[in-house]
Amino acid sequence: MIPDLWYPIAISTDVGTKKPTSLRRLGMQLVLWRDMDGNVVVQDARCPHKGADLGDGRLKGNAVECPYHGFLFNPEGTCTLTPAMGRNARIPGSLKIRSYPVQERHGLIWMWWGDDRPADERPDIIAPREIREHEGLYSTISWEKPVHYTRYIESVQEFYHVTYVHRDHWLNYLDFNFLYGTLRKFGLDGKQNFLKATMIHNHHVETDDDGMTFRYSFDHGQEDDPSKSIHYVITFSFPCMVHVQTEAFETTSWFMPVDEEHTQHIFRVYEFPQLKPILRLPSLRRLMSTLQVYLEKFVQDPQDFKIMAKQEPRISGGGVNKFIPVDEMNAKFIKTRARLLREAMERRQETVHDTDDGMVGGMDMAEDLDVRDAPISAPSPTETRRASVNGNGNGNGNGKLNGSSAPSVPPSDEVETWSGATAG
Questions:
Q1: Arithmetic mean of pLDDT, 395-404
Q2: For the residues 152-162, what does the mean pLDDT come to?
Q3: Helix (H, G, I), strand (E, B) or coil at 178
């Protein structure tokens, strides 16, 4: 997982004003809630007192209440009440939870996972024009799968797997007829054309000026008749967004790392342009998008997951895959991810310090210190060093992150390719 970026940790509508929400993202247990002005607050979920999950608590005014002993924590993470000590008690300053910078944009909640640089020095949320400028209706849902996010991203950065993975379920016939069927045969020749669509034509990758967004343009169709093809434009933006656009449909996926073993797939389907002249009511067009997101969740995605669950190694990276030329988008993703991880480590190598563990007299005592203005801690240099780059699954003996072994960092950002594929 790459530090110093904004991550989309939840759908905005998943966090309300009635109760806090507990979720796991980036290897951390977090609590999300809205203050009295409706602003989202993102904090560490573990109460510093005895480790209860604040996501199981209540909202009390402008604070979240611990379900165990009623301690209150405000949006800055400061404890404002310890009932067992009384209202007028002096509260130890170390009874504090970490609050993370947060933004709401594009229907999602974004958390800054990085160093404690000033707000005006943080980069902006990376959202390509396909997201920023989209004005159509859409439906968004999410689900979690036990797969590393790099494998998830790879699976949607190319579409030549669909002929082999998505050919058997009866509901796939909707795609066969809609995407591959011809009007002359009322779509009934869809599966026949689908099974012939095995070749990628006219493929190339472009990179935005920021170096963090790539666009892969290609035609997927028949080898003997390239005119029978579907044109795709796949846009990837770091850290985890994949946008797919064809003449027939448009979708966006955010593959949010839960930890080293799990990914939250936030999936969005936009209204079908062909239906706009027919379905005048926005609610009906949104309903069609909603049906499509559930089709993805319960039909298409399980078919992909069946493959991803058995991929070895579980984390993709440099030297792991033998790419072919049409994998140029995958190769560019892996190479750039390795570079970003290496740069993040280099920024932190000068900040490694041994710290006192706070143990006093054999007990971890809350200290009576004023830490209300303490800076937000970034992912530690150790956490960054443990972040996976080459994904070889072997590790290098430098420890574990969230209970799973982490591969070593390769000495270069080269990505192994085959038959002329390039990573750049």
A1: 35
A2: 91
A3: helix
